[in-house]
Amino acid sequence: MTDPGALRRAAVIGTGVIGTGWVTTLLARRVAVTAYDPAPGSAERLRAAVRANWPTMRLLGAGDEPDLELLRVTDDPVTAVRDADLVQENGPEDEAVKRDLVAVLDAAAPAAAIIASSSSGLPPSAVQAGCTHHPERVLVGHPFHPVHVIPLVEVVGGRRTAPEAVARALEVYTWLGKRPIHVRHEVAGHVANRLQAALWREAYSLVERGTATVADIDAAIANGPGLRWSVLGPFVNQHLSGGAGGLAHTLEHLGPPMVRWWDDLGTPALTTELAATLVDGVRAELGDRTDADLAAARDRLIVRLLIAKSHEETL
């Protein structure tokens, strides 16, 4: 392979929503994929889902149709990983299940293959704990839904992960068109989910206190900071808000009030009553609009944004 990040063969373990996104992403780069899922009818569902995702992939530069000749589906995880350069595991978010599954994959995959778990919050040290062959190539490669659209992948090494494996994973995900980041220490939820959780915590608290409705909060983020965050991250946006003085000016003048806001942030309990309020609020906000229509519109807008960003020199 002339490109150090290039792949020839990949295995996708589990073909639910996340696994399907990975299969779509890999096929768009013309990588041969062997997928494993024990659920009855999974092969037919996977192929149908890839076809449904493909209009989005065309907008992102893929071919007119997915080459499903590159896709094999098996009911045996050992067969799935036997010739893989990358193994992307997407099993249930259960530590014991992942530990046992990844141990099987580690025993069967080629020694040079990267084994990446899509876990949204489990530490890679726990995921690799049952591996007795090559735990040094096991790590977390956590994508964001919808996987075939959102570029972010969080790469996290465990206690036994080799630095070379992390470097290789970063290369591979970059070659796949992703925007990987290296999470340098294991923390529950990695980076992006912790940031989301911080926002959700205060959003839930504001609803609980009656300060704003669910629709108000969605409107505040989608029409305010969310627009800036989709182009530049929180630190650079904060820097730009400081004018000529940049981040130093912002921290000097707005830092103390922000600290006082921190002290006033809520700590809501996710009670049955609050959960019902949140669910009812979303239903009222959506009205007659279906989830499928809303998701399709979201994906179209994200693709347009990604295309626009590709023509601008942003970070």
Molecular structure report:
With 315 residues, this protein is α/β, with parallel strands linked by helices. The chain contains 13 helices and eight strands. The chain has an eight-stranded mixed sheet, with helices on both faces. α1 (17-28) crosses α2 (42-59) and α10 (234-240) crosses α11 (246-264). The model has no long low-confidence stretch (mean pLDDT 96).
Biggest sheet: strands, sense, closure? 8 strands, mixed
Pick out the low-confidence regions: none
Cα(first) to Cα(last) distance is 29 Å
Order of helices and strands: EHEHEHEHEHEEHEHHHHHHH
Number of strands: 8
Structure summary:
By secondary structure, this protein is an alpha/beta fold. The protein has helices at residues 17-28, 42-59, 77-81, 95-108, 124-127, 163-175, 192-208, 214-222, 225-229, 234-240, 246-264, 272-286, 291-310; strands spanning 9-13, 32-36, 71-74, 86-89, 114-117, 138-143, 152-157, 179-183. It is globular and about 55 Å long.
Fold topology:
Elements: E1 9-13, H1 17-28, E2 32-36, H2 42-59, E3 71-74, H3 77-81, E4 86-89, H4 95-108, E5 114-117, H5 124-127, E6 138-143, E7 152-157, H6 163-175, E8 179-183, H7 192-208, H8 214-222, H9 225-229, H10 234-240, H11 246-264, H12 272-286, H13 291-310
Parallel strand pairs: 1-2, 1-4, 2-3, 4-5, 5-6, 7-8
Antiparallel strand pairs: 6-7
Helix pairs in contact: 1-2, 10-11
